[in-house]
Amino acid sequence: MSLSTHVLDTAKGRPAAGVAVTCEVRDGAGWRQLAERRTDADGRIGDLVERGHLEAGIHRLRFATGAWADQAGETTFWPEVTVEFEVRSPDEHHHVPLLLSPYGYSTYRGS
What we know:
Blueprint: E1 2-9, E2 14-15, E3 20-27, E4 30-38, E5 44-49, E6 57-63, H1 65-71, E7 81-87, E8 93-95, E9 98-101, E10 104-107
Parallel strand pairs: 1-8, 1-9
Antiparallel strand pairs: 1-2, 1-5, 3-4, 3-6, 6-7, 9-10
């Protein structure tokens, strides 16, 4: 169906606006890019992969956290955060949030 994400800066308790996010799908031995977008003012990308374009298989989201921190005048231990996950039912909506701080992060399958 579709794929969305949400990035929260947990150290500041607010959305992480302007984070570049790339979505890729495993294609043989490599990766094929499906989309690249930036989080909005609320830290969200509601249509990272649009309805009907999500494929079954192994996907990864690459969050450009280092560039985002540099632009904000901040420091981070994470130049990039990569989250791999499997889409088994492409007809379902998939939401993969990232909770980010300078020295830690977590993620989960949201709704």
